[in-house]
Design brief:
The chain is of the alpha/beta class and 313 residues long. The chain has two domains: 179 residues, Rossmann fold, CATH 3.40.50.720; 111 residues, Alpha-Beta Complex (UDP-galactose 4-epimerase, domain 1), CATH 3.90.25.10. The chain is built from twelve helices and twelve strands. The termini are far apart. It binds 2-amino-3-ketobutyric acid. The site of 2-amino-3-ketobutyric acid has 12 residues, from loops. 2-amino-3-ketobutyric acid (AKB) binds next to loops.
């Protein structure tokens, strides 16, 4: 049966590419994009679009009933750097939007939920290299606390009420179509833009700050794959570790220099350094590989090539 999909937060960094992909797979009529405001972009202009406030249960319920929605992808959230500036709103948005969709599933109005978690669920006491699926989790950011709490609620709703909720701990995501929105890993997108525009980049993290990252196409494929997996395959109902590439600012700069030899990078760490220092450097995603067959495709060099080629156009 073809799902009827609602994407909340469809105009954000992940939402934009996810909506485009889901429309290709399931058809424009089966994918309803929604966001807090109506922008003039492909998501709004080339398919069904509705304005929705992720904090308004009644609005979401109305859309679910109007379009007979089966699957909800809840992509609206405040990311790590923005959340530190507005903790109360970050907690409100990140938690209550999740409760709204979990509760809609609990009363049988929707069948399946995708909710993104993040490497931010880990903290300074977590083993930094090859961070395991199950380990110490003491996040020190508002965003990380909200994602870890969200994971607990997802698992609770699954066990107590049979809610079919699926989730991935995204690393930093890199894409040429959409700009990131307020994360600690945003530098890894901005660096490509500045390399082409100015030939130089000032990084807000230090040269050796290694973080887990992933090319957006891999992340979207992982999202589609976990949602298409049989329910029995999805054994973890909090959230799956997902690994792509890990690199430092100096390593991404070197990979850009292979294409733009004169490119230079300088370092001016700000408040985001502390956030980066609390996160893992690399992730062990063997559970996702075993349970639903995950495998990443892009490495740093193949990603750099695609980013520079496409941003030049
Ligand atoms: C952020 O930097 O806040 C996000 C994330 C890792 O979840 N990209």
């Amino acid at each position: 049966m073809t799902p009827k999909i609602l994407i909340i937060g469809a105009c954000g960094q992940i939402g934009t590419e996810l909506t485009t992909t889901l429309r290709k797979i399931y058809g424009n009529d089966n994918v309803i994009a929604s966001d807090i405001r109506k922008l003039n972009n492909d998501i709004v202009n080339h398919g069904i679009f509705e304005v929705v406030n992720a904090l308004d249960y009644n609005q979401i319920q109305h859309l679910v009933e109007q379009y007979e929605i089966t699957d909800v992808y809840l992509m609206a959230a405040l990311l790590s750097a923005t959340a530190e500036k507005n903790p109360a709103f970050a907690w409100d948005l990140n938690m209550n939007s999740l409760f709204h969709v979990l509760n809609l599933a609990k009363v049988g109005k929707i069948k399946k939920i995708f909710w993104p978690s993040s490497i931010a669920v880990f903290g300074p006491t977590t083993p930094r290299e090859h961070t395991p699926q199950y380990t110490i989790m003491e996040p020190t950011t508002v965003y990380g606390i909200s994602k870890q709490t969200g994971e607990r609620w997802c698992e609770y709703y699954h066990h107590q009420y049979g809610v079919d909720v699926r989730s991935i701990r995204y690393p930093g995501l890199i894409s040429y179509t959409t700009e990131p929105g307020g994360g600690t890993t945003d530098y890894a997108v901005d660096i490509y833009h500045k390399a082409l525009e100015k030939g130089s980049f000032e990084c807000f993290l230090s040269a050796e700050s290694k973080l887990p990252m992933m090319y957006m196409e891999d992340a979207i494929r992982a999202t589609v794959e976990i949602m298409q997996a049989e329910s029995e395959q999805v054994k973890i109902r909090s959230s799956y570790n997902l690994s792509g590439i890990s690199f430092t600012p100096s390593e991404i700069a070197k990979s850009i220099q292979n294409y733009i030899p004169d490119f230079t990078i300088s370092y001016k760490p700000d408040f985001r350094q502390k956030i980066a220092d609390s996160w893992p450097a690399s992730i062990d995603d063997s559970c996702a590989r075993q349970d639903w067959g995950w495998k990443h495709k892009y490495d740093l060099d193949s990603m750099t090539k695609i980013m520079l080629e496409n941003l030049k156009k």
